[in-house]
Amino acid sequence: NASQTGAFRNMRPVIGLNIADAMRILWSEEVAAEITGHFSHTLDTGEPYYSRDFINPRRDEDMIEAYEWELHRMEMQDGQYGVICYYYDSTKLREAEWALRAKEADLCEAQRIAHIGSWQWDAVNNAIWWSDELYRIYGKSPDVSLQTYEEDQNNYTPESAALLTTTVQKILQNGEQYVVDLELNANVNEGARRWVQARGEAIRDDSSKVVALRGTVQDITERKQLEKDLKQAKTAAEAANRAKSEFLANMSHEIRTPLNGLYGNAQLLEMTDLTDEQQEYRSEEHTSELQSPCNL
Q: pLDDT value at position 185?
């Protein structure tokens, strides 16, 4: 089929053109020789040839094209053999695949930078899928086979595993989203104590039944450590403030006790006849009493 819009769109004429010459117009010498060799092999042996990953730059145009093609030997009306080629232009399909892979790569990089992994759990078949970053957060290799829900429980401390189980049971019943902080088990991430925040939502089938869950997991170990440090600093500050108050109260008591005696004697002196000089001294003493820290 000499298509005027397909792979042979720039050939005039197509019919009658030698296959080797035609291929050299479309592709590089190396690719053209490989294609011609497949034609010759099928013609000589009768063995069909299938190609699913033919992606090459064209020689006659500044572009890359992808084809799926196959060769079969056929017997002509005159009894001789020929080769028929079926091909499908898969360029647009490949471009869509390339674009999807690029987006997946961007997503993986974003997850790596933010320390956020994604997951999905098929509740019907009890199968779990993790993103690459989630494997890194849990200190596991992506080559490890995916876990069941029960095996996943081993990644957490008993308290966090129980919390996750309760949370999952609720979402399976009511379909509501959840956010929980979970502590990883000591055997995860080479024994380092780590915390993650798990978010999840329900996936429903056509009958609105919850059949799967999906969500994200973020490493919040640094945040948890900061919260712990802030709590310890607050506790230390409160203890220091209490100690200061107790110290001032004790000091005030220790100072006030002997001074009270002096103040009492001074007041008794006022009840006696004092000379002018003694009155002046008493007046200054009275002013000192009013300014004493014990009267604050």
A: 85
Taking the model in full, what pTM does it have? 0.53
> In this structure, what are the phi and psi dihedrals at residue 160, rounded to the nearest 5 degrees?
-70, -35
Q: Which of 152, 136, 149 is nearest to 189 (CA)?
A: 136
Phi, psi of 166 (to 5 degrees): -60, -40
CA distance 269 to 8: 127
Write the single-letter amino acid at 89: D
Q: Is the peptide bond before 258 cis (omega within 30 degrees of 0)?
A: no
Q: Which residue has the tokens 């010459």?
A: 21
Asked if 216 and 199 touch (Cβ cutoff 8 Å), the reply is yes
Our CA angle for 118, 119, 122, nearest 5°, is 160
On the 0-12 / 13-18 / 19+ scale of CB atoms within 10 A, 122 is: middle
Give the burial class of 127: count Cβ atoms within 10 A of its Cβ; 0-12 exposed, 13-18 middle, 19 or more buried: middle
Q: Is 215 helix (H, G, I), strand (E, B) or coil?
A: strand
Q: What are phi and psi of 58, to 5 degrees?
A: -75, 150
Percent of the chain as helix, strand, coil, to the nearest 5: 50, 25, 25
Task: Give every CB contact of residue 268 below 8 A, 6+ residues apart in sequence.
Answer: none
How far is it, in rounded angstroms, from Cα 229 to Cα 241? Answer: 18
Q: Which residues pair with 120 in a beta bridge?
A: 129, 214
Length of the chain: 296
pLDDT in tens, 54-77: 999 999 888 899 999 999 999 999
CA–CA dist 241, 263 (Å, integer): 32
* Other Cβ atoms within 10 Å of 155 Cβ, number: 21
Which comes out higher in pLDDT, residue 15 or 131?
131
Tokens found for residue 3: 């298509």
